[in-house]
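Sample pair:
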Amino acid sequence: MRFCAGRPEWLTVEVGIVGRNRALVAGLLAFVSLGAGCGGQPENATRPSAARTPVQEAYSWFRAIDSGDATIWNAYFEPGRSPLAGGNFAGWGMHSAVRCRLLNENGSRASVYCSFNESGARGNPDTWWTIAMRREAGGPWLVQNWGQG
């Protein structure tokens, strides 16, 4: 999964700006990329964090799926809700061009819509999921359910 590949829309630089300030623009773009999680190893899966928004947590959840690490992926679910308690990722595809947006957020509940390209999955690959999330006060957003429905 490549969240930082290509040229993100928000990093589009007009040619006129680049002219004589190339070093400044290059440095600024490098700094912004690091701040956006594009430096170092952007695709490493991490555990859920209370500091993330529902959309940020959804992106992190996709990285956990693609990592193949069931322990990290299971951490994104409310206790007892993980469908992969046994850790079998066989047949799961990889996700690229992931784009997520918040559908709604109401205190401790949120719904996020994500579109993506899925490759390598058994059966018919999906192109979108809606992710239902819930959070306890001060805790991270955790997945309750996801799918097309």
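Residues 111 and 126 are 18 Å apart (CA to CA).
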